[in-house]
Amino acid sequence: MTHFSFPGSERLKGIAQSPFVPVECPTMLEFSASEARRIALNAQGFGSGRPKRADRDGLRRVVNQTQLIQIDSVNVLARAHYLPFFSRLGPYQQSWLDELAYRDRGLFEQWGHAASFIPTEHYPLFQHRMENGHRWWRARLSPDRRAQFERMIHEVRERGPVTVSDVETEGRRQGWWQWSDAKMALEWNFAHGRLAVRERRNFARVYDLPERVFDPSVLARPGLAEVDAHRDMVRLAAGAMGIATASDLADYYRIPVAAARQRARELVAAGTLEEARVEGWRDTGYLASGTEPVEDVSRATALLSPFDPLLWNRDRTERLFGFYYRIEIYVPAAQRVHGYYVLPFLMDGDLAGRVDLKADRKVKTLVVQGAFAEPGRDRRRVAAALNRELKLMARWLELERIEVVHNGDVAVKLASGAV
After folding, report:
1. Helix/strand/coil (H, E, C) string of 153-181?
2. Whole-number Cα distances in Å, 157 to 151, 153, 195, 363
3. 274, 268 in Cβ contact below 8 A?
4. pLDDT of 311-367, one tens digit each?
5. What value, to the nearest 5°, has the Cα angle with vertex 48 and ends 370 and 78?
6. Contacts of 24 by beta carbon, 8 Å cutoff, 6+ apart
7. Do 235 and 273 contact (CB within 8 A), yes or no?
8. E strand or H helix at 414, and its extent?
């Protein structure tokens, strides 16, 4: 079994468990809005531009920078967890991510920001969350329900790795989130760390006992107490986000805002983080000590998944880029403003437009169902840059042509160069 160490993992015990020694705080730093934007883009892996050729090491670098990769089932274009790597690396083999997670065990699945890929080195950070069951912690289980969940563990132990369909014989329910008894038992045990995800089959989780998924050394490491885990989560979030408020930091790993604020203050006192005022921000910003704005992010151009870590916190996205964004998948079609699966378009270090995309795999076509420039943007420049990115994406997804629907203020210009 191959092991990978991601930056930050070697400091879990050091920072989380050592006593804090307050240091003298200098005058609070001040940054302009554009400087904060550059810091954020650089932290998320957009500062140096894409490599000439993507490789497996590039995937690990992206994980080093983002710390978490959100997993989502929507497949109208590509699964959400594959897109952040394409945005930062360009075309790469999607199988590399599967191998990193399920063959090499460099990543594991658990509830992070949402359902997420997390560096396996960070397993101790999440043991307190698994003990509490994360999203399940409020549930009061009846003795019958708890016995049912225990029987599922016994079945997996005896039977081996299973999917929901393998064990789902009755109790099926219909509609969103109306889980069957078997699905509920598997998910409850997974959230509590009593089951782990061995692999995915057609995107379905394959559940198994943790001791049959992880190397013994992973499970042998002691988990951190909640307060220590939260402190390290805040530190890692600050590094991944570049510069962020306490509320932003809390959202990255979905911890309470009050806890994130207190842990950030402790990290400032320890000299690990610094406080900053940012132009246009009401709340104090936090960033890793010694962080300075990069001089140039003008090459930062990419199509961004709605679930890209750069965009997780919609309020922060608006603060950084002046870009109001809400995903409209669950909005009735007649009420959508920009479309069903809309990707923000990062151009020259700023969010300059958005595009509604669909991969029609039957006819090998990337369908542009709408293309829009942000107010004040040069539509011709947006269309030209977007055209290049769409061609790159079509090649990555092995689609042979691009079809542009005349919807949006750059669609006509885009159509003239995209087909």
Report:
1. HHHHHHHCCECHHHHCCCCCCCCCCCCCH
2. 10, 6, 10, 44
3. yes
4. 999 999 999 999 999 999 989 999 999 999 999 999 999 999 999 999 999 999 999
5. 35
6. none
7. yes
8. helix 411-418
